[in-house]
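Intended use. Records like the one below are meant for learning the mapping from a protein sequence to its folded structure. Do not use them to infer anything beyond what is encoded.
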Amino acid sequence: MSIPPAEDVRALVRDKYGSLDAARAGGLEEDLARLRAGEPLAYVIGWMPFLGLKIDLGSRPLIPRPETEWWAGELIQDLEKRFKDKPFRVLDLCAGSGAVGLALLARFSRARVSFGEIEPAHIDTITENIARNHLDAARADVRRGDLFTPFFEERFDVIATNPPYIPSGRDLESSVTDYEPSVALYGGTDGLDLIRKIAKDAKNHLNPKGELWMECDSEHIESARELVREGGASTTLIRTDQYGRPRVVVGYYS
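Structure written out for the chain above:
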């Protein structure tokens, strides 16, 4: 077992307990053992920050990455220019913890945000995250099902999604493979299984001038972009992340 970095221990004490005395009385040693075994810090704490929100991870969804937080911020800037104070509809597909959709629900007072997620336990997590962040539940719609199935014939102005996209043969760190849900990580041999389905069906669920924002594997992002084109996007572009890696395919639909 490895020794947890000092900064992780400090974050654990601060974010889970509030003080060292409370940590010592409340299970710090057990949590340190979990960190030594390689469990991700975010799971041990039980939540993580995301664009000013506290995202509960109680059902152990995929831990939101900094890259996802980055492009969610870029999407917010795009929507601020496009809609300002006008109403619009968003679908957070493969929502997991709901972090992306929650950030949009928090930022735009007239947006209606739907969340689509296949794992039943994550449905409860999304609902809990709406409540714990004091967001407007009346503008949120959380549904369980496979991709677009729960949203038959419904259309949105924006679809934002971080689907499973890692090729099945790629080696990942044990802290990921041993703890995070494989169903949220792997997207088939080339990582494009879910992306193919989303790219094919997105046009049927977007309003005129709708947009698809989809996080992808950098090594296969050109293939993902071509799938979005084939699915009916009139224009596509690739956005690089804060580390300079191609990360998001954006499709624009006429």
